[in-house]
Structures
1.
Amino acid sequence: MISECPPLLLSVTPPLRSLEINPNMLGRWIKEHESVDGQAFRGNGKLTAEQLEIRQFLEENHRLKMAKDILKKATVDSTWRRTV
């Protein structure tokens, strides 16, 4: 197992363990950092394009539900009485 680890990971394993961080987590962070254009730790509200699109869909869904509820409350039946 140890022979499979990259040399960098072997040298940082003791400090990681003292901080109670699993060495595999560091490897995941490194891969994420390399694969997401250096934005693995975005923070401060900086979202990926996918996260932004999901947020926009959720907001639109909320607005449409509100509009549907308003229209549902405003409907009238065949005798022109408001239905609730």
2.
Amino acid sequence: MDLFSPRHLIVILLIVLVVFGTKKLKTIGADLGGAIRGFKTAMNESQSAADAANAPVAPEPAAATAAPRQVASSTSVPADAAKASQQAAG
């Protein structure tokens, strides 16, 4: 004899229906459905949070992080040479 034969399941269902009643079974079913829905939502949120945490971060551009360099132009005179010429003239 199989434990979960259709006859056994019908008898168990009838006993549960008599013990709890239809209103209580409806409430239990709604609560169980809400719990399963909340569990699925939490699993999806934790999965998306884990995916976001493991996502590669784009590196910052090199120009934004490097200190600016002073570029000397070919027409500019070094500061020491300009001071020397002022002292010689004055």
3.
Amino acid sequence: MFVLVFISFSSFFAMGLLVIQLILYSFLSIQEIFIFQYILMIAFSIGSIDIYRYGIFYFIAFLAGYLFLHRIAKRNIFWSTFPRMQTFLQNNIDDLMLCIFLWVILWWRLGHVVIYDFGYYWSHPGDIFKVWQWWMSFIGGIFGVTIALAILARKKRLTTKELLLLGDLIFAILPFGIMVWRIGNFLNQELYGVIVSDRLPRLWYPLFSLFNDLNIFHVYTQVDNQLRVNTNLLSSFFEWLVLLIITMSIIRTRVKTKKAQPGKIVAVFLIGYSTVRFLLEYLRADSQLEFHGRFSISQRFFLWFFVLGLVTMIWRKRYKWFN
């Protein structure tokens, strides 16, 4: 209980810093923003140990996942259809979150190393362990979640339906974690979009004005003074808000109808997220260097995720996994 209270306090403290920073940004000059940005990269220090803002954001995401699973376990919504799964949730949430945390952190880093810059890290293996460098890979994180669930499923002897149901719960809350990470990307001025005049030179003025008012176009002051596509905002809206509404709607339906429908959220998330990320790759500046032919490295993975989501959806219908 003490650990949970401490993490909750740290999370609210971090969110408070975030709100203060967003308010101050509207009053500061470009030079002042740069200085302020550098200072707030470190949220606080304990002795000589610096606690970085990004690390707190990660813990906020994992805390949300823990609280969500804890709430689901208390509701007993799977007791009539999947009693073993309900027992697993009630007795193994701590082990589940610890396993996911370790494997996700590991594969977040390894995903970037293996997928995006293997040649460099092959020549500089020591740089693999420089985790304070922000280079992580969401694709690697997905692999980490999959490995963690597979390990627990084997250890606890879960059936395929139970494994997919567990995956549904994890992927249902994942959009919230994506939102937290995108906030970090925006505040750290990274994963920004292409220059508007380069990619959208003939955009109809009223539409341009509307996008600018909605902050879809944004000047990343630490990068340059060019007006760029705010891919952080677009990612947050589609990858977080839209997907979270969809996944939570499915969860709410399950609570009301007492029908588990294993694998549905996994399929919907893979299809929805892959579609959004595939399209946004064309607007992200960092992704322009990844293109080999028609598609970037990331897009090739998202195509496979999309197909996997379709296969999961078809598999569910073929075997009539509606209960």
4.
Amino acid sequence: MLSSLLMLVESNSDAGASAVGLLIVTLALYFVPSLVGTMKKKRNAGAIFAVNLFLGWTVIGWIVAMVWALTNDAPVVQVNQNYYGQPAPPAGSVGDRFCQRCGAHMGSRGICPRCTPALA
């Protein structure tokens, strides 16, 4: 197909120009999901492009890529962790005391059972 397209272009005929125009329009329509994903700055725009490139010809793959490109990204959840990799205590905990080093509950004595096991 590409060789016949090149032959049409070389002949400088109107058919060659229209064939090139048709090819450009077809490629533009084929990659609409990838363009939408890129324009929306999706985190997974590369994966959308891969699905579009390899499975877009199946129509179902094109629809999947288009739906994926049009959906909104889930918000990024950021978990604050302390030095030891454990979740930090909730901010503003009323009446609770947590160790600043490891985040463990210190209890009523105010001594961390993890950091000072001999004293706990």
